[in-house]
């Protein structure tokens, strides 16, 4: 499947923007290798902020859960070290990456992941014309099941990881690739949807071993 490991990340947060003072409340990072999740880092996070009631209603994460969790000063460096220099992926990846960078910057702990893959953008390009690309609806449409509550970091990351592996298998089968380089997924994120088929045709031709 993937020629090098990819780490699928999901955050639960107190809101939409770290620039507005929103913080992470839960993290899940799942390392994908050999066609499966081989390692994971999952934790609630105490960022010393109030959890809005609507966030509790959405996620089930309460103020008491956050207050009793490990502090961000412990969780965030451990998370960044877990990711290392592997390619990072997330569903709507710009959201998760901006929180990761903001939390790291607070602690002077720089991110060093080797590229960013957005499974939402990839899905739009690889499976065009679907009615929805929200993680829950997309996964149901592709036959990928949630094994626990949605809008919790580990459950969402698990489904997003399964989605990314589904995309990897599809690309491999459709274009005759023995393995999928994570850098290909990074590049596909930047290709206009209408040009994906041509891009992949050229890419696959360059990867085939001459007879």
Description of the molecule:
The protein is an alpha/beta fold and 211 residues long. The chain has one domain: Nucleotidyltransferase, domain 5 (2-Layer Sandwich), CATH 3.30.420. Helix content is 45%, strand content 16%. It has nine helices and five strands. A five-stranded mixed beta sheet has the order 3-2-1-4-5, with helices on both faces. Strand 2 (24-33) and strand 3 form a beta hairpin. Helix 5 (119-126) packs parallel to helix 7 (153-175). The radius of gyration is 18 Å and the shape is globular. The mean pLDDT is 94.
Quick tags:
211 residues; alpha/beta; Nucleotidyltransferase, domain 5; 5 strands; globular
Helix and strand arrangement:
Blueprint lengths: L5 E8 L10 E10 L2 E9 L8 H7 L3 H5 L4 H12 L3 E4 L2 H14 L9 E3 H8 L8 H7 L11 H23 L6 H7 L7 H12 L4
Parallel strand pairs: 1-4, 4-5
Antiparallel strand pairs: 1-2, 2-3
Helix pairs in contact: 5-7
Can you describe this structure in just a few lines?
The protein has 211 residues and is α/β, with parallel strands linked by helices.
Radius of gyration over all CA atoms, rounded: 18 Å
CATH topology annotation: Nucleotidyltransferase, domain 5
**Low-confidence parts:** none
Shape: globular
**Number of distinct helices:** 9
Helix content: 40-55%
Proportion of strand residues: 15-25%
Domain count: 1
- SSE class: alpha/beta
Q: Mind telling me which CATH architecture this is? A: 2-Layer Sandwich
Please write the string of helix (H) and strand (E) elements.
EEEHHHEHEHHHHH
Question: How many individual β-strands?
Answer: 5
């Amino acid at each position: 499947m993937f020629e090098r490991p990819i780490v699928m990340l999901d955050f639960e947060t107190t809101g939409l923007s770290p620039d507005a003072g929103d913080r992470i409340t839960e993290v899940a990072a799942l390392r994908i290798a050999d066609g499966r999740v081989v390692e994971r880092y999952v934790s609630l996070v105490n960022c010393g902020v109030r959890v809005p009631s609507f966030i509790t209603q959405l996620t089930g994460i309460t103020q008491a859960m956050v207050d009793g969790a490990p502090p961000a000063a412990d969780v965030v460096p451990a998370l960044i070290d877990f990711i290392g220099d592997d390619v990072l992926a997330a569903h709507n990846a710009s959201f998760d990456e901006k929180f990761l960078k903001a939390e790291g910057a607070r602690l002077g702990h720089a991110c060093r992941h080797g590229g960013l893959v957005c499974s939402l953008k990839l899905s739009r390009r690889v499976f065009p014309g679907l009615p929805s690309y929200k993680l829950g609806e997309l996964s149901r449409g592709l036959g990928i099941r949630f094994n626990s509550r949605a809008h919790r970091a580990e459950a969402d990351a698990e489904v997003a990881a399964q989605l990314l592996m589904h995309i990897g298998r599809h690309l491999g089968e459709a274009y005759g690739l023995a393995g999928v380089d994570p850098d290909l997924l990074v590049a596909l994120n930047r290709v206009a949807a209408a040009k994906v088929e041509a891009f992949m045709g050229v890419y696959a031709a360059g990867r085939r071993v001459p007879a």
